[in-house]
Design brief:
heterodimer, B: 4 helices, sodium:proton antiporter activity (chain B), PhaG_MnhG_YufB (chain B)
Chain lengths: ~90, ~120
């Protein structure tokens, strides 16, 4: 039973990532693309976490944590870059 | 089919359902702020459900405690609102238009009032 559920869930997450890719391609402004890419990163965490059940290994937990950190830092960095400021400011600029 | 498989399956299906709802919101909402609203709450709760289900599977079936998955849940729960706040602030400062039928814009009113009270910035 768990195999069928895992197949369905992987399909749903793939559909979700596909829809986000469409928004990242057609987004009218650059902020739409940032939102879509951030959501792709969030969905990728769940995808790789389910691959841990499929392959019955706990070795991918590092990958899951690292993708969470990189998605957050990437979103914040692109948002600050789009705003036209520096990435690390002191609040008096 | 044991009990733990049913519980893990409920967690996984609920998480995938919330993720798909977030993506539908991303493709359907009319402006950036609505899309941010859909993406940052629904997808985050979905991925928290999925990772919690995987943690339960490894805890009961395999018999190992994967602490990094708990750390991932905590990290996503803490940093998704921060990232959404940064994206929304940068979108407002760049000048992305709201939807035509948006009723009110409190930040514009407050910025106007603040500029009227303090016309020039004190340099120190």
């Amino acid at each position: 039973m768990l195999d069928i559920v895992i197949a369905i869930v992987l399909g749903l997450l793939s559909l979700s990532i596909l829809i986000c890719t469409g928004r990242a391609l057609i987004g009218p402004t650059m902020s739409d693309r940032i939102v879509a890419l951030d959501t792709i990163g969030i969905n990728l965490i769940g995808f790789i976490a389910i691959l841990m059940i499929v392959q019955e290994t706990a070795a991918y937990s590092d990958v899951v944590l690292l993708i969470a950190i990189l998605a957050f830092i990437g979103s914040v960095a692109i948002a600050k870059f789009l705003e036209g400021g520096v990435v690390l400011d002191r609040g008096d600029s | 089919m044991s009990l733990i498989e049913v519980i893990v399956s409920i967690f996984l299906i609920l998480g995938a359902f919330l993720s798909v709802l977030g993506s539908i919101g991303i493709i359907r909402f009319p402006d950036v702020y609505g899309r941010l609203h859909a993406a940052t709450k629904s997808a985050t709760l979905g991925v928290i459900f999925v990772v919690a289900g995987v943690f339960l599977y490894f805890l009961v079936v395999e018999g190992i405690v994967v602490g990094k998955l708990l750390l991932t849940i905590l990290f996503v729960f803490l940093t998704a609102p921060v990232a959404a706040f940064m994206i929304g602030r940068s979108a407002y400062n760049v000048g992305v238009k709201m939807w035509d039928r948006s009723k009110q814009d409190d930040l514009a009113r407050d910025l106007e009032k603040m500029n009227k009270e303090k016309p020039k910035k004190s340099d120190f």
